[in-house]
Amino acid sequence: MILDLLRRKPPATTERVCYLHIGPHKTGSTSIQHALYVNAKRLGRLGLYYPTTLGSEGRRRRNHTPLARKTYLRLPGELRDAPVWDEFSALLAETPGSIVVSSEHFAILLRRDRWFERIIGFFEEHGFRVVVVAFVRDQPIWMNSWYTQDQKNFASRRSFAEFQAHVIKRGYMDPWAFLKRAIEHPRITVRPISFERAVKHGLARSVLDAVGVPHSFKLEEPPRINPNFGVKGVFAAQEIMRRVDVRIRSLPNYIDLYEHFLKLMEGRGWEAVPYVGLTEERYRAIRERFAPANEAFAQAYFGCSWAELCPERRYEPSVFDFEAASEADRADVLEVVEEMVARVQASPKPAAS
Questions:
Q1: Among 11, 12, 156, 217, which one is least packed by beta carbons within 10 Å?
Q2: Which CATH entry fits the domain spanning 2-6+16-137+173-210: 3.40.50, 3.30.70, 3.40.1350, 3.90.550?
């Protein structure tokens, strides 16, 4: 796709900018990446490129997540010589305008000095000024959304309360924490977007606004991808992890297992009853925990209060109670659990470290 655009040779812009969209997780990144990918040719005519590399099967990737693999970032030598980065480096050398790079994993990577310097330095070496684009979101429901994805991915057996403590300690949801180095860097511009406002305005459109695409550029907002997969889904994932004696994500066929899990849930309507781990007490405690930082950030970057960006809401817990469930609902969940447990147990063992 990008090679077709390069052959047209539009005039190079006077300044080349890398708009680095860093997510974070659970702020609609997959949907945004889909919109950027399908509109790449049209954006290229404006001198704004969404360059993507080829995957192992020869299909073009829709995001830049391979650039965020820690195994590549840990390699010695120049980043431009690392796998995937070398292909991307050659691509950028032929790109005449500004670019958009998108991976929600950058929000975590850019918190570490060494990786921050390597990633930002790579784009600056290629002649780009870096503008970091990131969403900020009200932490309680953000945490709930991230937790459901954590369970769907078989990432951990943490309870919601344990997950809450983990992400607060890590600073994953504090904009001052995950944007700290970008904010303090003298050559980087930070452009945060309110997720709550963007949901009403359009997630993809909000990113286009942040990177300066004119309003005359029309696009259809992509469908919602990776929604809350429901109370049954969270219960099933937890039960599968409880019944097996191996970390599923460490298995060589993890991707196949994950995709089969999604296939088993397909058509069951589980997403109709979303998982909510929030109680009113927990909701208020999380809001209060982040309140001082949120208020300062909202005033500094949006010129308003956090309450205006993210009005208070009420939440009622919604979980699957297996003991109280009907026989049909139990059978529905157990069918998925037992099929997945059998597949995990038949999987090849992880390679010895």
A1: 11
A2: 3.40.50
